[in-house]
Amino acid sequence: MDTNTANLLQQDPGPAALQGIKVVEMGQLIAGPFCGKTLGEFGAEVIKIEATGTGDPLRNWRLLQNGTSVWWQVQSRNKKSVALDLRQQEAQDIARRLIAEADVLVENFRPGTLEAWGMSPQELHAINPGLVMLRISGYGQSGPYRDLPGFGVIGEAMGGLRHLTAEPGRVPVRVGVSIGDTLAALHGVIGVMMALYHRKVNGGAGQVIDVALHEAVFNVMESLIPEYSAFGVVREAAGSALPGIAPSNAYPCQDGWVLVAGNGDSIFKRLMDTIGRPDLGNAPDLAGNAGRVARVQEIDAAIGAWTAERGIAQVMDALAAARVPAGKVYTAKDIAEDPHYRARQMILQQHTRDGHTLEVPGIVPKLSGTPGTVRSSAPHLGDDTDAVLQSMGLDAQQIAALRERGIVQ
Protein backbone atom coordinates (compact mmCIF):
# COMPACT_ATOMS: atom_id res chain seq x y z
CA MET A 1 0.00 0.00 0.00
CA ASP A 2 1.25 3.50 -0.83
CA THR A 3 2.43 5.33 2.29
CA ASN A 4 0.62 8.56 1.49
CA THR A 5 -2.64 6.72 0.90
CA ALA A 6 -2.35 4.66 4.08
CA ASN A 7 -1.55 7.64 6.29
CA LEU A 8 -4.48 9.63 4.96
CA LEU A 9 -7.00 6.97 5.85
CA GLN A 10 -5.55 6.30 9.29
CA GLN A 11 -5.35 9.90 10.51
CA ASP A 12 -7.91 11.53 12.80
CA PRO A 13 -10.27 13.39 10.44
CA GLY A 14 -10.47 16.32 12.87
CA PRO A 15 -13.00 19.15 12.47
CA ALA A 16 -15.23 19.25 9.40
CA ALA A 17 -16.17 22.42 7.55
CA LEU A 18 -19.85 21.42 7.28
CA GLN A 19 -20.23 19.58 10.56
CA GLY A 20 -23.78 19.99 11.86
CA ILE A 21 -25.29 20.56 8.39
CA LYS A 22 -27.96 18.01 7.46
CA VAL A 23 -28.65 17.35 3.79
CA VAL A 24 -31.53 15.36 2.33
CA GLU A 25 -30.62 14.14 -1.17
CA MET A 26 -33.55 13.17 -3.37
CA GLY A 27 -31.70 13.18 -6.68
CA GLN A 28 -30.39 10.28 -8.68
CA LEU A 29 -27.64 9.47 -11.18
CA ILE A 30 -25.12 12.31 -11.46
CA ALA A 31 -25.91 16.00 -10.98
CA GLY A 32 -27.76 15.98 -7.66
CA PRO A 33 -25.77 13.12 -6.11
CA PHE A 34 -22.42 14.68 -7.08
CA CYS A 35 -23.47 17.77 -5.15
CA GLY A 36 -24.43 15.58 -2.17
CA LYS A 37 -21.11 13.75 -2.44
CA THR A 38 -19.16 17.00 -2.25
CA LEU A 39 -21.11 18.31 0.74
CA GLY A 40 -20.71 14.96 2.48
CA GLU A 41 -16.95 14.92 2.00
CA PHE A 42 -16.69 18.11 4.02
CA GLY A 43 -18.72 16.86 6.96
CA ALA A 44 -22.39 17.31 6.12
CA GLU A 45 -24.71 14.48 7.15
CA VAL A 46 -26.23 13.34 3.85
CA ILE A 47 -29.40 11.25 3.96
CA LYS A 48 -30.10 9.88 0.50
CA ILE A 49 -33.70 8.96 -0.25
CA GLU A 50 -33.82 6.19 -2.86
CA ALA A 51 -36.71 4.41 -4.52
CA THR A 52 -37.61 1.02 -3.10
CA GLY A 53 -36.79 -1.92 -5.33
CA THR A 54 -33.78 -0.85 -7.38
CA GLY A 55 -32.67 2.42 -5.79
CA ASP A 56 -30.56 4.93 -7.66
CA PRO A 57 -29.93 3.66 -11.23
CA LEU A 58 -26.26 4.63 -10.83
CA ARG A 59 -25.88 1.50 -8.71
CA ASN A 60 -25.96 -0.44 -12.00
CA TRP A 61 -24.06 1.87 -14.35
CA ARG A 62 -20.84 0.92 -16.15
CA LEU A 63 -18.58 -1.74 -14.61
CA LEU A 64 -20.04 -3.76 -11.73
CA GLN A 65 -18.31 -5.53 -8.84
CA ASN A 66 -20.50 -8.02 -6.99
CA GLY A 67 -23.48 -6.53 -8.82
CA THR A 68 -22.76 -2.92 -7.82
CA SER A 69 -21.16 -0.18 -9.88
CA VAL A 70 -17.70 0.86 -8.70
CA TRP A 71 -18.77 4.39 -9.72
CA TRP A 72 -21.41 4.15 -7.01
CA GLN A 73 -18.69 3.57 -4.42
CA VAL A 74 -17.32 7.05 -5.12
CA GLN A 75 -20.54 8.96 -5.78
CA SER A 76 -22.27 7.74 -2.61
CA ARG A 77 -19.54 7.61 0.02
CA ASN A 78 -20.36 9.44 3.26
CA LYS A 79 -24.10 9.00 2.63
CA LYS A 80 -26.91 7.20 4.42
CA SER A 81 -29.46 5.32 2.30
CA VAL A 82 -33.15 5.42 3.17
CA ALA A 83 -35.42 3.54 0.76
CA LEU A 84 -38.93 5.01 0.38
CA ASP A 85 -41.71 4.43 -2.13
CA LEU A 86 -42.53 8.08 -2.73
CA ARG A 87 -45.57 7.14 -4.77
CA GLN A 88 -47.28 6.44 -1.45
CA GLN A 89 -48.57 9.16 0.85
CA GLU A 90 -46.99 7.71 3.99
CA ALA A 91 -43.57 7.68 2.35
CA GLN A 92 -44.06 11.29 1.30
CA ASP A 93 -44.93 12.13 4.91
CA ILE A 94 -41.68 10.51 6.08
CA ALA A 95 -39.72 12.52 3.50
CA ARG A 96 -41.38 15.74 4.67
CA ARG A 97 -40.45 14.95 8.27
CA LEU A 98 -36.82 14.44 7.24
CA ILE A 99 -36.83 17.67 5.23
CA ALA A 100 -38.39 19.56 8.14
CA GLU A 101 -35.21 18.90 10.13
CA ALA A 102 -32.74 19.46 7.27
CA ASP A 103 -30.62 22.42 6.32
CA VAL A 104 -30.41 21.52 2.63
CA LEU A 105 -32.56 19.61 0.16
CA VAL A 106 -30.94 18.48 -3.10
CA GLU A 107 -33.15 17.24 -5.94
CA ASN A 108 -32.71 16.80 -9.69
CA PHE A 109 -36.14 15.58 -10.78
CA ARG A 110 -38.05 16.98 -13.72
CA PRO A 111 -39.74 20.26 -12.67
CA GLY A 112 -43.11 19.64 -11.07
CA THR A 113 -42.24 16.26 -9.52
CA LEU A 114 -41.88 17.57 -5.97
CA GLU A 115 -44.97 19.73 -6.39
CA ALA A 116 -46.98 16.62 -7.32
CA TRP A 117 -45.86 15.07 -4.01
CA GLY A 118 -46.93 18.12 -2.01
CA MET A 119 -43.35 19.31 -1.59
CA SER A 120 -43.29 22.62 -3.43
CA PRO A 121 -40.90 25.28 -2.12
CA GLN A 122 -43.81 27.08 -0.53
CA GLU A 123 -45.02 23.95 1.27
CA LEU A 124 -41.54 22.96 2.42
CA HIS A 125 -40.64 26.46 3.60
CA ALA A 126 -43.88 26.51 5.58
CA ILE A 127 -42.56 23.62 7.69
CA ASN A 128 -38.88 24.62 7.50
CA PRO A 129 -38.34 28.35 6.81
CA GLY A 130 -34.56 27.99 6.84
CA LEU A 131 -34.43 25.25 4.20
CA VAL A 132 -31.93 25.74 1.37
CA MET A 133 -33.44 23.97 -1.60
CA LEU A 134 -31.20 23.08 -4.57
CA ARG A 135 -33.12 22.16 -7.72
CA ILE A 136 -31.09 20.91 -10.70
CA SER A 137 -32.94 20.26 -13.95
CA GLY A 138 -32.37 20.27 -17.68
CA TYR A 139 -33.77 23.71 -18.44
CA GLY A 140 -34.53 25.24 -15.04
CA GLN A 141 -37.76 25.74 -13.10
CA SER A 142 -39.10 28.41 -15.49
CA GLY A 143 -39.07 29.29 -19.17
CA PRO A 144 -40.64 27.73 -22.27
CA TYR A 145 -38.46 24.60 -22.14
CA ARG A 146 -39.10 23.95 -18.44
CA ASP A 147 -41.04 20.72 -18.94
CA LEU A 148 -38.80 19.14 -21.57
CA PRO A 149 -36.68 16.16 -20.47
CA GLY A 150 -33.01 17.03 -20.24
CA PHE A 151 -29.82 15.14 -19.45
CA GLY A 152 -26.28 16.45 -19.14
CA VAL A 153 -25.45 15.68 -22.78
CA ILE A 154 -28.37 17.87 -23.90
CA GLY A 155 -27.14 20.63 -21.61
CA GLU A 156 -23.71 20.36 -23.21
CA ALA A 157 -25.28 20.77 -26.65
CA MET A 158 -27.53 23.70 -25.75
CA GLY A 159 -24.82 25.34 -23.66
CA GLY A 160 -22.56 25.60 -26.72
CA LEU A 161 -19.90 23.08 -25.69
CA ARG A 162 -20.68 20.26 -28.12
CA HIS A 163 -20.35 22.58 -31.12
CA LEU A 164 -16.71 23.08 -30.21
CA THR A 165 -15.70 19.53 -29.23
CA ALA A 166 -14.69 18.22 -32.64
CA GLU A 167 -12.11 18.35 -35.35
CA PRO A 168 -13.18 20.97 -37.92
CA GLY A 169 -15.87 19.57 -40.18
CA ARG A 170 -16.35 16.38 -38.17
CA VAL A 171 -19.07 15.17 -35.83
CA PRO A 172 -19.18 16.85 -32.37
CA VAL A 173 -18.01 14.38 -29.74
CA ARG A 174 -18.36 13.88 -26.02
CA VAL A 175 -15.58 15.09 -23.80
CA GLY A 176 -15.59 11.55 -22.39
CA VAL A 177 -17.31 12.20 -19.06
CA SER A 178 -20.65 13.65 -17.95
CA ILE A 179 -19.26 17.15 -17.78
CA GLY A 180 -22.64 18.88 -18.07
CA ASP A 181 -23.98 17.11 -14.99
CA THR A 182 -20.83 17.73 -13.00
CA LEU A 183 -20.69 21.43 -13.88
CA ALA A 184 -24.30 21.75 -12.75
CA ALA A 185 -23.48 19.96 -9.49
CA LEU A 186 -20.53 22.24 -8.77
CA HIS A 187 -22.63 25.33 -9.46
CA GLY A 188 -25.17 23.81 -7.09
CA VAL A 189 -22.55 23.40 -4.37
CA ILE A 190 -21.57 27.05 -4.78
CA GLY A 191 -25.20 28.08 -4.54
CA VAL A 192 -25.77 25.99 -1.42
CA MET A 193 -22.75 27.48 0.33
CA MET A 194 -23.81 31.04 -0.55
CA ALA A 195 -27.36 30.39 0.62
CA LEU A 196 -26.16 28.86 3.90
CA TYR A 197 -23.90 31.86 4.48
CA HIS A 198 -26.75 34.26 3.73
CA ARG A 199 -29.00 32.34 6.10
CA LYS A 200 -26.40 32.55 8.85
CA VAL A 201 -25.76 36.29 8.61
CA ASN A 202 -29.15 37.57 7.49
CA GLY A 203 -31.76 36.16 9.81
CA GLY A 204 -32.15 32.48 9.03
CA ALA A 205 -34.29 32.49 5.88
CA GLY A 206 -33.79 29.73 3.34
CA GLN A 207 -34.16 30.03 -0.41
CA VAL A 208 -34.39 28.08 -3.67
CA ILE A 209 -31.34 27.57 -5.90
CA ASP A 210 -32.38 26.95 -9.52
CA VAL A 211 -29.60 25.35 -11.62
CA ALA A 212 -30.21 24.43 -15.26
CA LEU A 213 -27.81 22.00 -16.88
CA HIS A 214 -27.34 24.07 -20.03
CA GLU A 215 -26.79 27.27 -18.03
CA ALA A 216 -24.02 25.65 -15.98
CA VAL A 217 -22.28 24.70 -19.23
CA PHE A 218 -22.92 28.10 -20.80
CA ASN A 219 -21.39 29.81 -17.77
CA VAL A 220 -17.94 28.41 -18.63
CA MET A 221 -18.04 29.18 -22.35
CA GLU A 222 -15.64 32.11 -22.00
CA SER A 223 -15.86 34.69 -24.83
CA LEU A 224 -18.38 32.77 -26.97
CA ILE A 225 -21.23 35.31 -26.79
CA PRO A 226 -19.21 38.56 -26.44
CA GLU A 227 -17.35 37.70 -29.66
CA TYR A 228 -20.64 37.06 -31.44
CA SER A 229 -22.12 40.26 -30.03
CA ALA A 230 -19.18 42.47 -30.96
CA PHE A 231 -18.07 40.92 -34.25
CA GLY A 232 -20.77 38.49 -35.38
CA VAL A 233 -18.18 35.72 -35.05
CA VAL A 234 -19.47 32.19 -34.43
CA ARG A 235 -16.68 30.25 -32.76
CA GLU A 236 -16.16 26.93 -34.50
CA ALA A 237 -14.60 23.60 -33.60
CA ALA A 238 -10.81 23.67 -33.66
CA GLY A 239 -9.78 20.18 -32.56
CA SER A 240 -7.01 20.28 -29.99
CA ALA A 241 -5.96 23.87 -30.73
CA LEU A 242 -6.95 26.92 -28.70
CA PRO A 243 -8.28 29.37 -31.31
CA GLY A 244 -6.88 32.88 -31.12
CA ILE A 245 -4.06 31.87 -28.76
CA ALA A 246 -0.81 30.46 -30.12
CA PRO A 247 0.92 28.15 -29.85
CA SER A 248 -1.29 25.84 -27.79
CA ASN A 249 -2.00 22.44 -29.24
CA ALA A 250 -1.40 18.69 -29.13
CA TYR A 251 1.70 17.46 -30.92
CA PRO A 252 2.67 13.91 -31.98
CA CYS A 253 5.58 12.07 -30.39
CA GLN A 254 7.01 8.66 -31.26
CA ASP A 255 4.93 7.03 -28.50
CA GLY A 256 1.88 9.27 -28.11
CA TRP A 257 0.86 12.91 -27.81
CA VAL A 258 2.02 15.87 -25.77
CA LEU A 259 0.15 19.11 -25.13
CA VAL A 260 2.32 22.19 -25.31
CA ALA A 261 1.20 25.66 -24.21
CA GLY A 262 3.85 28.06 -25.48
CA ASN A 263 1.54 31.05 -25.79
CA GLY A 264 3.27 33.42 -23.35
CA ASP A 265 5.66 35.83 -25.06
CA SER A 266 8.77 34.81 -23.11
CA ILE A 267 7.66 31.16 -23.03
CA PHE A 268 7.36 31.15 -26.82
CA LYS A 269 10.92 32.36 -27.21
CA ARG A 270 12.24 29.64 -24.86
CA LEU A 271 10.19 27.04 -26.70
CA MET A 272 11.61 28.04 -30.06
CA ASP A 273 15.15 27.96 -28.70
CA THR A 274 14.50 24.46 -27.32
CA ILE A 275 13.24 23.07 -30.63
CA GLY A 276 16.11 24.64 -32.56
CA ARG A 277 14.08 27.39 -34.21
CA PRO A 278 15.56 30.64 -32.86
CA ASP A 279 14.61 32.25 -36.18
CA LEU A 280 10.97 31.99 -35.13
CA GLY A 281 11.69 32.92 -31.54
CA ASN A 282 13.48 36.12 -32.63
CA ALA A 283 11.07 37.09 -35.40
CA PRO A 284 9.69 40.58 -34.57
CA ASP A 285 6.19 39.77 -35.81
CA LEU A 286 6.00 36.71 -33.51
CA ALA A 287 6.86 38.58 -30.33
CA GLY A 288 3.15 39.01 -29.50
CA ASN A 289 0.14 36.71 -29.62
CA ALA A 290 -1.56 38.43 -32.57
CA GLY A 291 1.43 37.82 -34.82
CA ARG A 292 1.74 34.21 -33.70
CA VAL A 293 -1.94 33.57 -34.41
CA ALA A 294 -1.41 34.83 -37.96
CA ARG A 295 1.37 32.25 -38.47
CA VAL A 296 0.00 29.51 -36.22
CA GLN A 297 0.11 26.76 -38.87
CA GLU A 298 3.81 27.40 -39.47
CA ILE A 299 4.54 27.41 -35.74
CA ASP A 300 2.54 24.24 -35.10
CA ALA A 301 4.35 22.50 -37.95
CA ALA A 302 7.74 23.43 -36.47
CA ILE A 303 6.82 22.16 -33.02
CA GLY A 304 5.26 19.00 -34.45
CA ALA A 305 8.33 18.23 -36.53
CA TRP A 306 10.48 18.44 -33.40
CA THR A 307 8.21 16.33 -31.18
CA ALA A 308 7.70 13.69 -33.87
CA GLU A 309 11.37 12.73 -33.71
CA ARG A 310 11.32 12.14 -29.94
CA GLY A 311 9.57 10.11 -27.28
CA ILE A 312 7.19 11.67 -24.78
CA ALA A 313 9.67 11.47 -21.90
CA GLN A 314 12.40 13.20 -23.91
CA VAL A 315 10.03 15.97 -24.97
CA MET A 316 8.73 16.45 -21.45
CA ASP A 317 12.23 16.61 -19.96
CA ALA A 318 13.42 19.17 -22.51
CA LEU A 319 10.38 21.41 -22.09
CA ALA A 320 10.50 21.19 -18.29
CA ALA A 321 14.13 22.31 -18.38
CA ALA A 322 13.09 25.26 -20.54
CA ARG A 323 10.15 26.09 -18.24
CA VAL A 324 7.61 25.56 -21.02
CA PRO A 325 4.21 24.23 -19.87
CA ALA A 326 3.68 20.79 -21.36
CA GLY A 327 1.74 17.70 -20.44
CA LYS A 328 1.40 14.09 -21.43
CA VAL A 329 -2.12 12.92 -22.26
CA TYR A 330 -2.83 10.68 -19.27
CA THR A 331 -4.78 7.43 -19.27
CA ALA A 332 -6.29 5.89 -16.12
CA LYS A 333 -3.12 3.78 -15.84
CA ASP A 334 -0.93 6.89 -16.02
CA ILE A 335 -2.94 8.58 -13.28
CA ALA A 336 -2.86 5.54 -11.01
CA GLU A 337 0.92 5.24 -11.34
CA ASP A 338 1.81 8.92 -11.12
CA PRO A 339 3.77 9.92 -7.99
CA HIS A 340 2.35 13.46 -7.95
CA TYR A 341 -1.21 12.14 -7.62
CA ARG A 342 -0.03 9.96 -4.73
CA ALA A 343 1.92 12.71 -3.03
CA ARG A 344 -1.16 14.97 -3.05
CA GLN A 345 -3.41 12.16 -1.83
CA MET A 346 -5.56 12.21 -4.93
CA ILE A 347 -5.70 8.41 -5.04
CA LEU A 348 -7.35 6.95 -1.93
CA GLN A 349 -7.97 3.39 -0.84
CA GLN A 350 -11.62 2.92 0.03
CA HIS A 351 -13.22 -0.23 1.44
CA THR A 352 -16.63 -1.26 0.15
CA ARG A 353 -19.35 -2.83 2.29
CA ASP A 354 -18.90 -6.01 0.26
CA GLY A 355 -15.33 -6.38 1.53
CA HIS A 356 -13.42 -5.08 -1.49
CA THR A 357 -10.70 -2.44 -1.52
CA LEU A 358 -10.81 0.10 -4.34
CA GLU A 359 -8.54 2.91 -5.35
CA VAL A 360 -10.74 5.95 -5.88
CA PRO A 361 -10.33 9.69 -6.53
CA GLY A 362 -9.33 11.87 -3.60
CA ILE A 363 -11.09 14.98 -2.40
CA VAL A 364 -11.07 18.45 -3.95
CA PRO A 365 -10.67 21.24 -2.89
CA LYS A 366 -8.00 20.85 -0.20
CA LEU A 367 -8.69 22.82 2.98
CA SER A 368 -5.81 23.24 5.40
CA GLY A 369 -7.89 23.44 8.58
CA THR A 370 -10.98 21.39 7.77
CA PRO A 371 -10.01 18.95 5.01
CA GLY A 372 -12.52 16.65 3.39
CA THR A 373 -12.60 13.01 4.46
CA VAL A 374 -14.12 9.66 3.59
CA ARG A 375 -15.92 8.71 6.80
CA SER A 376 -18.06 5.87 5.49
CA SER A 377 -18.31 3.72 2.39
CA ALA A 378 -21.23 3.80 -0.04
CA PRO A 379 -24.34 2.13 1.41
CA HIS A 380 -26.37 -0.79 0.21
CA LEU A 381 -29.94 0.13 -0.67
CA GLY A 382 -31.82 1.00 2.50
CA ASP A 383 -28.87 0.31 4.81
CA ASP A 384 -29.83 3.21 7.07
CA THR A 385 -33.63 3.13 6.80
CA ASP A 386 -34.19 1.68 10.27
CA ALA A 387 -31.65 3.92 12.01
CA VAL A 388 -32.99 7.09 10.41
CA LEU A 389 -36.61 6.18 11.15
CA GLN A 390 -35.72 5.39 14.74
CA SER A 391 -34.06 8.78 15.06
CA MET A 392 -37.41 10.26 14.00
CA GLY A 393 -39.13 8.48 16.89
CA LEU A 394 -40.54 5.39 15.16
CA ASP A 395 -40.24 2.11 17.03
CA ALA A 396 -39.41 -1.31 15.62
CA GLN A 397 -43.06 -2.33 15.34
CA GLN A 398 -43.98 0.79 13.38
CA ILE A 399 -41.03 0.32 11.06
CA ALA A 400 -41.94 -3.32 10.49
CA ALA A 401 -45.49 -2.28 9.59
CA LEU A 402 -44.17 0.25 7.06
CA ARG A 403 -41.93 -2.40 5.56
CA GLU A 404 -44.77 -4.89 5.24
CA ARG A 405 -46.79 -2.36 3.24
CA GLY A 406 -43.84 -1.61 0.95
CA ILE A 407 -43.54 1.98 2.10
CA VAL A 408 -39.93 1.55 3.22
CA GLN A 409 -37.20 -0.96 2.41
* Domain module count: 2
**Distance between the first and last residues' Cα:** 37 Å
CATH class of the largest domain: Alpha Beta
CATH H-tier superfamily of the largest domain: Crotonobetainyl-coa:carnitine coa-transferase, domain 1
What structural class do the secondary elements suggest?
A: alpha/beta
What is the CA-based Rg, rounded?
25 Å
The percentage of residues in β strands lies in 15-25%
Task: Output the CATH topology of the largest domain.
Answer: Rossmann fold
Count of beta strands: 13
- From the structure provided, what is the oligomeric state, counting identical versus distinct chains? single chain
Low-confidence stretches: 1-11
Tell me about the largest β-sheet.
Answer: 6 strands, parallel
CATH architecture of the largest domain: 3-Layer(aba) Sandwich
Helix content: 25-40%
Q: Outline, from the CA principal axes?
A: elongated
